């Protein structure tokens, strides 16, 4: 069992599903968020309200930790100036604090939006070059490159989880991009318990028949998703409008993020169900 794990973004929807399994993997789980409450804590969990954009707030919490799971960010497209603190500076603070405190690994919630302008038909692998669809995606590219550089220059391991869409399946794109919560937990677990990862990228996607990305070169992590969005296909496609083949949102990996104007919200049009786990 690990001694200590730190989770950022603990108040978020994905964080709500990760807290319990993470608490079972370590003696102490430190959950952090900018909000003032994350609900009832698990027996070995403590909460710290911090702003990851402020180094002196987040850095002390990493002392004595084995790994940090960095899920904290603004999770939408915004003007660059709004993303600069939490999504860019926040990532630097995490990697630098992890280095300063001698952590073994950073597990980072990256995103398909780091490669969002690639065509879905290209079936890209983990070695696809960065092709961000938004400032939000650009922050993911920056953070992945931080992870690569800190491994090359300082020996700090990273696993970057390029999550496609971890939310209820309610649109045609999600038939390929869905990551179930159970598969999310397995993905994070493998990112933690694989003995050696160096700098690694893996797509966060379930075992969907229509998955538009290739995880073959990340197979050493042992991530073997079990869920398949095809179970929802008949109902979803029965109500779906014909695809607009001129719309980047239909043709590119990033979905609505690929067609939205820079700096404007992409999630407003996505009908994401907030089925956050209650504690």
TrEMBL record:
The keyword NAD applies. One of its GO terms (molecular function) is oxidoreductase activity. Transmembrane segments: none annotated. Residues 6-163 form the NAD-dependent epimerase/dehydratase domain. Gene3D superfamilies: NAD(P)-binding Rossmann-like Domain. The keyword Cell inner membrane does not apply. CDD domains: SDR_e (cd08946). Keywords: NAD, Oxidoreductase. InterPro entries: Epimerase_deHydtase, NAD(P)-bd_dom_sf. It holds the Pfam family Epimerase. Belongs to the NAD(P)-dependent epimerase/dehydratase family. This is Uronate dehydrogenase. It comes from Sulfitobacter marinus.
